[in-house]
Design a protein that fits this description.
heterodimer; A: alpha/beta; Rossmann fold; 3 domains; six-stranded parallel β-sheet; 22 strands; B: alpha+beta; Alpha-Beta Plaits; 2 domains; five-stranded antiparallel β-sheet; four-stranded antiparallel β-sheet; 9 strands; binds thiamine diphosphate
Chain lengths: ~550, ~160
């Protein structure tokens, strides 16, 4: 290479280094080998996953646990299509992931070449933005734009599709264009007039409620939210994505709202006169049927994305901007208020509608309770299903970024790889994945990755030999006709884990729960505990009617 | 209701797919779409005519505005704007009384752009109503082919343009 000249692959790795990237999760192929050749010379750690979906979830888990960008990489064609589920998962939950995919060389694009797919075409609807990089000299500004876009405004995945010959092409840095993003100016500061109006509404409210969404977690506005809620004496409900937005044991915390929400949370929403919704997109799992949602309330909607305002639920007062900035302003300005009638009433509702009792035994709620006692304040990662909702209800979370779940896409198989990513972001913390047996088997091969890369995560499988959430739906809505939801009992997940070099423990008796968890947490290897559930109750409350107030509890 | 959406964006590959995808994923059928360069190099302007629920279209507009290369997307109010559409119409002359056709062409405010053989090509320019009207008048003749550009629209007075 001539002096002052770079190859595309070189500049990719240099840009990642300049960005301070510690780790990239990937899986190689012919179309990314030039990048791997450069990566070998770099200090950036590469974690070789066992499936590209795993690599994408790892990057996502890393991003969610740290707030920094998560990076993943795959080859063209099947590598790229395998990333898709992971990218879509990140997109639905606004997680800042940067995906790099190899593409066939430029002269072959469009010819149905070996391992060619239209990666940018496929990923337009599931990325914040994507690039097909046409020339090596475009790489520096495409990369810096991609990093900026993924991590600013409403965060989200950005993909760069880079043809192999672009990776090999030489260019000199002085050919580089400056980035220009005229159409992209996220609003950060909330409009002062709107904030004043919101304050007026909150001051005069008799029955105020705050809905804390995932945006509060992304913005790390926990402290501001706590101040606002406590000064204004405003009860807080959270969405699944917003669980870590508010200390779950704060007396003002009413728990999760929505389709699987707590009765007191849904009651608060249904009776409130003023709702302050922060960083939530009013997803259908949170609102239930829209026609009856928050029928008494005027809604103040704070969101960084103007397109979320009045998308699902009409906002009486929108405030576009960064949740931390806006809640912070409100918290500073709100006088100390009390709503004793309202809070007492809600406490009464809570008392009359407790969650189902936690029975001792090898059952998910009890296991979660034991875990809480032993592990304290770990980062809890979940998969998708009944166990996920149990985790949302029975595992109180205290600090930000400590509850990681696929809320928007509901991706089974998210847990193990996301936990691996989270552990690399926070090696000092305990990372515990609550998995269902169905979810676990979707990406369990990544246990091998965790072993080889020395990433000690703890996986707790709530094994009911069943797709529990599916059977719950068939129970409630399909006349108990259980179809395609039962698994055979042939798989021994503990042995499966052991075969990959992890510690595997099988637990089928109540008294083994605590020792197993203690052992799992003390291991310096990944550990999988297969809890053979003795009873597999459905998870309640569950909304079954046309409003949040029609439920089974 | 029918809406006319105007989009000012960077002129780069892929913008069209991104824009049209936001309509198609919601099951909207784009009635017409025209796009071309503007007075600023590197910027294009779309005019899209689409029928649909006002609320949903406002949602689409916001999503369009979110596209990284879209500088502005807005709904044009018909009363405040000048709108034009262009059509080319190919007519076969056999059995046609030429002077009658010429009268119709005048009434339809069409122009003959090619009359060299037994097949004429006419052009019509105007707002959508007058182009529709021209088609109505010419319907009795043997139209072999016709094409319309789709509407372009520009607002009177206030310039929306954010100079780049
Ligand atoms: C990739 C994927 N496929 C299918 C589904 C539909 N689904 C939702 S929950 C569920 C069952 C999950 O079973 P399991 O992981 O064993 O957890 P459990 O409900 O038993 O706790 C299924 C199949 C999904 N969410 N994700």
């Amino acid at each position: 290479m001539k002096k002052g000249k770079f190859t595309g692959a070189r500049i990719i790795v240099k840009s990642l280094e300049a960005q301070g990237v510690e780790v990239i999760f990937g899986y190689p192929g012919g179309a990314t080998l030039p990048i791997y050749d450069e990566l070998a010379k770099s200090s950036i750690r590469h974690v070789l996953a066992r499936h590209e979906q795993g690599a994408a979830h790892m990057a996502d888990g890393y991003a969610r646990a740290t707030g920094r960008l998560g990076f993943c990489m795959s080859t063209s064609g099947p590598g790229a299509t395998n990333l898709v589920t992971g990218i879509a998962t990140a997109f639905m939950d606004s997680s800042p992931v940067v995906a790099i995919t190899g593409q066939v060389p430029r002269p072959l694009i469009g010819n149905d070449a070996f391992q060619e797919v239209d990666t940018t075409g496929i990923t337009i609807p599931i990325t914040k933005h994507n690039y097909l990089v046409q020339q090596a000299k475009d790489l520096p500004h495409c990369l810096s734009e991609a990093f900026y876009l993924a991590g600013s405004g409403r965060k989200g995945p950005v993909l760069l599709d880079i043809p192999k010959d672009v990776q090999l092409e030489e260019f000199s840095l002085n050919q580089v264009k400056r980035p220009l993003l005229e159409g992209y100016n996220p609003t950060i500061k909330g409009h002062p007039g709107q904030i004043k109006r919101a304050l007026g509404l909150l001051k005069n409210a008799q029955k105020p409620v705050i809905i804390a969404g995932g945006g509060v977690c992304h913005a790390e506005a926990q402290e501001e939210l706590k101040q606002l809620a406590e000064r204004g004496d405003i009860p807080v409900v959270y969405t699944l994505m917003g669980k870590a937005a508010f200390h779950n044991s704060n007396p003002l915390c009413l728990g999760m709202l929505g389709y699987h929400g707590r009765v007191e949370a849904n009651t608060a929403i249904s009776e409130a006169d003023i709702i302050l919704a922060a960083g939530t997109r009013f997803g259908d799992r949170s609102t239930g049927p829209l026609g009856s949602f928050a029928a008494q309330a005027k809604i103040i909607h704070i969101d960084i994305d103007p397109a979320e305002i009045s998308k699902n639920v009409s906002a009486y007062l929108p405030i576009v901007g960064d949740v931390k900035n806006i809640i912070g302003r409100l918290a500073d300005l709100i006088p100390t208020i009390k709503h004793p009638d309202w809070t007492t009433h809600l406490k009464e509702v809570a008392k009359n509608h407790p969650l189902r009792e936690i029975k001792k035994g090898v059952m998910t709620p009890h296991i979660l309770t034991v875990l809480k006692e032993i592990a304290g304040d770990p980062i809890l990662v979940t998969d998708v299903g009944r166990h996920q909702i149990f985790a949302a209800h029975y595992f109180p979370v205290e600090s930000g970024r400590s509850f990681i779940t696929s809320g928007g896409l509901g991706t089974m198989g998210f847990g193990v790889p996301a936990a691996i990513g989270a552990k690399l972001g926070h090696p000092e913390k305990n990372i515990v994945d609550i998995a269902g047996d169905g979810s676990f088997m979707m990406t369990c091969q990544e246990i091998a990755t965790a072993v080889e890369e020395d990433i000690p995560i703890l996986v707790l499988i709530m094994n009911d030999y069943c797709l529990g959430m599916i059977s719950q739906l068939q129970d409630a809505f399909y006349g108990k006709r259980y179809e395609a939801c039962r698994f055979g009992k042939n798989v021994d997940c503990a042995k499966l884990a052991e075969s990959m070099g992890a510690v595997g423990i099988r637990v089928s008796r109540e008294k083994e729960i605590a020792p197993a968890i203690e052992k799992g947490l003390s291991e310096d290897k990944p550990c999988v505990i297969d809890f053979i559930l003795e009873d597999t109750p459905n998870v309640y409350p569950m909304v079954t009617g046309t409003s949040l107030m029609e439920y089974v509890e | 209701m029918k809406h006319t959406i105007s989009i000012l964006c960077d002129d780069i590959p892929g913008v069209m797919t991104r824009v049209s995808g936001l309509f198609s994923r919601r099951g909207f059928n784009i009635e017409s779409l025209s796009v071309g360069h503007t007075e600023v190099s590197g910027k294009s302007r779309f005019t899209i005519v689409v029928k649909g629920d006002d609320r949903v279209l406002e949602q689409v507009r916001k999503q369009l505005q979110k596209l990284i290369h879209v500088i502005k997307a807005w709904d044009i109010k018909q009363d405040d704007a000048v709108e034009r559409e262009h059509a080319l119409i190919k007519i076969k002359l056999e059995d046609v009384k030429k002077h009658e056709l010429l009268q119709i062409i005048t009434a339809a405010q069409a122009r003959i752009v090619d009359s060299s053989g037994p097949i004429w090509i006419l052009e019509v320019t105007g707002d959508t109503r007058s182009v529709d009207n021209a088609f109505n008048l010419l319907n009795d003749y043997n139209i072999l082919e016709s094409i319309r550009t789709g509407k372009i629209a520009i607002e009177r007075e206030t310039s929306r343009f954010i100079s780049g």
